[in-house]
Amino acid sequence: MSFCTTSNLFQKSYENHKTYPTNLIYRTEYRTTLEHYRNKLQRAEERLCSDKGSLDVGFRDFDSRFATGKDAWNVNDMETLEERLRGPLTQSSKERELEGDRIQPKDPQCRFVFLWADDSRARLRVSFGALLKILTFHQVNPGYLEFIMSFGKQRDGRGVSFSRFRTHYYLEESEAANSPSLTPEKMKDGDNSAGLQNTPAELGLGRSGRCFQLSWSLKTVVKRAPAMGAPLEWSARSVGLYHQFDIENGRTLWITTSGREDIQLRVQDLTGRNAKPENIKFDTPENSLRLSFHTHLLFCQWAMEGWPEYLQYLEELVEQEVRHPNTPSPASYRTDKLKTQMALDGDCEPGHRSIQYTSSALQDIQRREDRVQATLALLEANAEAMSSLRHFYLLLDNDSFPLHDACGPSIKLFTSQIHGCIADMRLLAGRARTLVMRTSSRKNLVVQHLQSQAAEETSNLAKAAQKETIAMRVIAFITVLYLPATFVSTFFSTDIIRYQGPGNGSKFVFSKEAMLRWLQVSIPLTALTLLGVGIWYFWDNGRLRYRRKFGKPGWTSLRPSKTA
After folding, report:
1. Which residue from 128, 309, 534, 564 has the fewest beta carbons nearer than 10 Å?
2. What is the mean pLDDT of the chain?
3. Rg, the chain, Cα only
């Protein structure tokens, strides 16, 4: 392990790690942009990072040899993190540090840093101070903060949908390793005016400054262990990736941010004792670049896993009833009884429907359509990220790239492999797009079924109302017919007119004169009543036709309006 003396500029930057990213010795953004990143990171501290002092960060370092046990471990406290970053503080190094110099080992030839959480919606298992120290020590481009802040405590997991591909590269010859433009006094005051340093070089740590930096994210889906008797559940996961490669000495840095430890386990499998020999060679920049290609492919293959099976699950979810195979009985959970296939194949004749849809069924289909659309967005984001990665390395495949002669064939092979991943991802995206259209058409078909059901019910109600109307008309006609006679009978039963037979016995006496008078009054009165009802009906019907024809009332009321 070789030791070195870092510049005062870097030491001051590290001491002011709490002001990251405004403390970077080399920046690609304006001051206002850096301040924006800093404020945004400070606001996200509570939901993003674990409690103060809590720490579980994975490190895996390599030099030109194979990484042994002490080079692959998890850091669980700040003291160990400090030793991991800056090396053990010996007695001689303490004396040099008192004199103003910091003695520490150079950067490893390849370093992996694993930031992770229990899941994509939980806080990262790293304290806020430790996170700032890691980012400051490696002078990570602030653009990577957007990928880190998509994690943390959240309700709906919307951070998974965040996607972007950011690049920055500096391949020109370094003019100066350290620029004196930033004095210790300016660092103390928090000043980071323009022209801090022309390159991200720190020769004391073995950083030549001729490097490129990549930041991007990839997504996949995994099965979640369901509760007993519950339907199968899936979860989308994301990984935020940061890669830095020094083209002069081949030093490589990887920082991954994920919702589980599976990324770390895969990298350990790639670079472990049973790995291929070409995957653990860091003796030359060319070999380091080839290992970077293998690591890229590892992440791309991780992002492709799970999607075919998940799309098949969504297709079954849209087409038919979903029931978990391990369910002991349908009554043990709420069975999803929505079968959109019945909307296509079922009998639609009135009175012969095989299924009756409700508004809740339409809500279920809409939720499924939203789920498929979200899946399509993640697949397209993966394809776009891989396409941007391939395009970046295609741009490097030219004579101006220092490693072109030795790594040209490897670059071509890598870009062709990435092209295959992109093609597969776009096929999956096309499958999801077809499923979106199918779900939308099924939703429209269910809407038509709902409208047909509503029309059928309205028709039934109209028929019932028509029957009731006929009955009411008959009753009304009979009532009107007997109304005059009822009135006359009531009138004649009073004491105004009285007919008595001869004698005062109880013998029944029929009065022909009374009957004649009753008919003489009842028949004309009934005729007048029916005539009045007919005149009223035809007058009201004519007024309604007048309104429909001219769009205005058929008569003018003499009563003044309330607004007048």
Report:
1. 564
2. 77
3. 42
Let me know: does 255 contact 57? Beta carbons within 8 Å: no
Nearest-angstrom CA–CA distance, 108 and 59 = 11
Q: How far apart are CA 278 and CA 290, in angstroms?
A: 8
Q: Nearest-5° angle of CA 146, CA 149, CA 151?
A: 130
- pLDDT tens digit string along 152-190? 887 766 666 677 899 988 876 654 344 434 344 443 444
What's the Cα-to-Cα distance from 413 to each of 244, 247, 261, 390, 394, rounded to whole Å? Answer: 21, 19, 29, 11, 11
Name the one residue in this structure whose structure tokens are 């949908």: 161
**98-131 residue pLDDT tens:** 444 556 678 888 999 999 988 878 889 999 999 9
Q: What three-state secondary structure class fits 141?
A: coil
pTM score, whole prediction: 0.74
Residue 419's H or E segment, with its range, is helix 404-492
Element (H or E) spanning 388, and its range?
helix 359-396
- Residue ranges of domains in the chain: 3-284, 306-324+335-475, 499-550
In whole angstroms, give the CA distance from residue 45 to residue 127.
Answer: 9
- How far is 124 from 159, CA to CA, in rounded Å? 13
Q: Is the bond preceding residue 88 a cis peptide, omega within 30 degrees? A: no
Phi-psi region of 424 (alpha: psi -120 to 50; beta: other; left: phi over 0): alpha
C-alpha span between 264 and 556 (Å, rounded): 86
Cis peptide before 21 (omega within 30 of 0): yes
**Taking CA 149 as the corner, what is the angle to CA 147 and CA 153, rounded to the nearest 5 degrees?**
130
CB 322 within 8 A of CB 316: yes
CA distance linking residue 426 with residue 69, whole number of Å: 41
Distance in angstroms (rounded) separating the CA atoms of residues 241 and 302: 13
Q: Are 62 and 110 in contact (CB under 8 A)?
A: yes
Contacts with 236 (C-beta within 8 Å, 6 or more apart), sequence order: 120, 157, 160, 219, 220, 221, 374, 378
Q: Tokens in use for 217? A: 């994210």
Residues for the chain: how many in total? Answer: 564
Q: Answer for the pair 311, 431: CB distance below 8 angstroms, yes or no.
A: yes
Q: How far apart are the first and last CA of the chain?
A: 99
